């Protein structure tokens, strides 16, 4: 069975190998540099000696004093490091030499003897390179020993520091924490034994903490949702009871109003009177539908959709509400765009949506209302924008929930938009808040085109 690699062993191997490689590299660089410096020093010395010998040889050639030249050569050859000296004329005749001629070109310097532009001969100086090589070997040996000593001291110091500061604390942590299941996402095969144990333990603990947090969050959400549903159901039940009593109280007078309006229309001859009686009958029906929709807040809505032209219904609603909104400060109601395709909708729901959004805009201090109609092959969209004061973030997050309103007490119930969204969703339509802020609020209502895919004709 393969023994697990410990952190101590890995640190020992990596630190030792790294320091050894660094030492070898530095030693090689130092050896090369030192050898070149020594060789260059001897080369410079030989060139200086050759220049000096060329000057003396020129004087000897001019006065034919070859004996003095021969003695001078022997005196120079006696200097340390000088192996061979020779002076030759341009015709190849040797005027003097001292020492043993070298076999190769290593350590040889040839310098010309010139008088102006005339080449009179050359001098050859050969120096012994063995001292240079011996000096380089001594320097290399001394440097290697020193470097090995420094590397050894640094290695043991680093190992001791890492043992105290890293290895032992990690081992203590691994011993304190219990084992946990493996995580295949972690590189277990490349981890030291101590770190593997710590990682396994931490992975297990993190998984347990994360799972506990998810369970707790789920339980809290469920508890909050259950509490909110219970409160909402209780309030809706109360509203349902009040709505039932209200409906019984209003249905009779509303039925009388609608009935008398219908009788008056049948006996009227004035077209303007007939038109106004028709408006009374229609609005009486709207009031009856509103009472019916109030009951829908406590039970599933029963929308009665059929194909209708949104633009016609929009024009009629705006014409009817313009005087009321003008009294509330809305000076401009602008309608743009037309929809030629009929939508699948409940007429009462359309009127209620328009009534709620426009009256809410007036309550928010709006002075301008802009309604834009757009359509494509599948949908008709109505965008309503106002320049009112907008709503708070807290209201925006729960806008379509029941009993949520930003109006002062006694000014609103918080049921209008909830009922509108419920009725719209029941026929495949929807309403959404696009934006709100100090510059105004924008809603978008989307209906399906009647007869489109999945929509009844």
The topology string of helices and strands comes to HHEEEEHHHEHEEHEEHHEE
What structural class results from the helix and strand content? alpha+beta
Distance between the first and last residues' Cα: 77 Å
Strands of the biggest beta sheet: in what spatial order?
6-8-9-11-10
According to DSSP, the number of beta strands is: 11
Uncertain stretches: none
Helix content: 55-70%
Counting copies of identical and different chains, the oligomeric state is single chain
Shape, please?
elongated
C-alpha-based Rg, rounded: 53 Å
Provide a count of the helices.
Answer: 9
Mean pLDDT: 75
Could you explain the architecture of this structure?
Helices cover 59% and strands 17% of the residues. It is an alpha+beta fold. The strands form 3 sheets. Strands 6-8-9-11-10 form a 5-stranded mixed beta sheet, with helices on one face. The longest helix has 75 residues, at 193-267. The radius of gyration is 53 Å and the shape is elongated. 19% of the residues are buried. The model has no long low-confidence stretch (mean pLDDT 75).
Write a concise synopsis of the structure shown.
It is built from nine helices and eleven strands.
Question: Keywords, please?
Answer:
alpha+beta, 17% strand, four-stranded antiparallel β-sheet, 9 helices, 457 residues
Q: Topology, pairings included?
A:
Elements: H1 7-63, H2 66-77, E1 82-89, E2 94-99, E3 108-115, E4 118-127, H3 130-176, H4 193-267, H5 271-296, E5 306-308, H6 310-327, E6 332-336, E7 343-345, H7 347-363, E8 368-375, E9 379-386, H8 393-397, H9 416-426, E10 430-437, E11 440-448
Parallel strand pairs: 6-8
Antiparallel strand pairs: 1-2, 1-4, 3-4, 5-7, 8-9, 9-11, 10-11
Helix pairs in contact: 1-2, 1-3, 3-4, 4-5, 6-7, 7-9
């Amino acid at each position: 069975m393969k023994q697990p690699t410990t952190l101590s062993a890995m640190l020992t191997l990596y630190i030792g190998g790294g320091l050894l490689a660094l030492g070898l590299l530095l030693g090689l660089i130092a050896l090369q540099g030192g050898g070149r410096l020594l060789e260059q020093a001897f080369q410079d010395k030989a060139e200086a000696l050759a220049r000096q010998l060329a000057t003396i040889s020129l004087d000897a050639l001019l006065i034919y004093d070859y004996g003095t030249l021969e003695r001078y050569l022997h005196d120079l050859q006696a200097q340390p490091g000088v192996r061979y000296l020779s002076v030759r004329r341009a015709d190849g005749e040797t005027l003097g030499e001292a020492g043993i001629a070298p076999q190769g070109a290593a350590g040889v310097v040839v310098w010309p003897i010139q008088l102006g532009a005339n080449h009179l001969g050359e001098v050859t100086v050969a120096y012994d390179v063995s001292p240079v090589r011996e000096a380089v070997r001594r320097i290399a040996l001394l440097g290697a020993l020193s470097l090995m000593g420094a590397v050894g001291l640094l290695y043991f110091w680093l190992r001791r520091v890492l043992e105290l500061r890293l290895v032992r604390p990690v081992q203590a942590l691994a011993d304190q924490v219990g084992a946990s299941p493996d995580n295949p996402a972690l590189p277990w095969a490349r981890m030291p034994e101590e770190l593997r144990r710590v990682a396994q333990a931490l992975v297990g603990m993190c998984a347990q903490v994360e799972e506990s947090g998810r369970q707790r969050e789920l339980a809290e959400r469920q508890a909050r949702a259950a509490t909110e549903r219970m409160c909402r159901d209780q309030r809706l039940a109360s509203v349902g009871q009040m709505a039932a009593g209200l409906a019984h109280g209003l249905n009779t007078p509303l039925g009388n109003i609608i009935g008398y309006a219908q009788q008056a229309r049948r006996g009227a001859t004035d077209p303007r009177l007939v038109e106004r009686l028709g408006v009374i009958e229609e609005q009486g029906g709207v009031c009856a539908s509103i009472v019916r929709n109030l009951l829908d807040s406590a039970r599933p809505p029963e929308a009665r959709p059929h194909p209708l032209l949104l633009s016609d219904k929009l024009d009629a609603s705006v014409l009817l509400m313009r005087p009321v909104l003008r009294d509330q400060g809305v000076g401009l109601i602008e309608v743009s765009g037309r929809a030629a395709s009929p939508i699948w909708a409940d007429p009462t729901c359309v009127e209620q949506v328009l009534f709620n959004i426009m009256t809410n805009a007036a309550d928010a201090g709006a002075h301008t209302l802009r309604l834009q109609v757009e359509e494509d092959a599948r949908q008709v969209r109505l965008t309503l924008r106002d320049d009112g004061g907008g709503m708070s973030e807290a209201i925006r997050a729960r806008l379509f929930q029941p009993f949520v309103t930003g109006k002062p007490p006694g000014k609103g119930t918080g049921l209008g938009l909830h009922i509108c969204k419920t009725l719209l969703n029941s026929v495949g339509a929807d309403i959404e808040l696009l934006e709100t802020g100090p510059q105004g609020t924008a809603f978008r209502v989307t209906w399906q085109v009647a007869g489109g895919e999945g929509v009844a004709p």
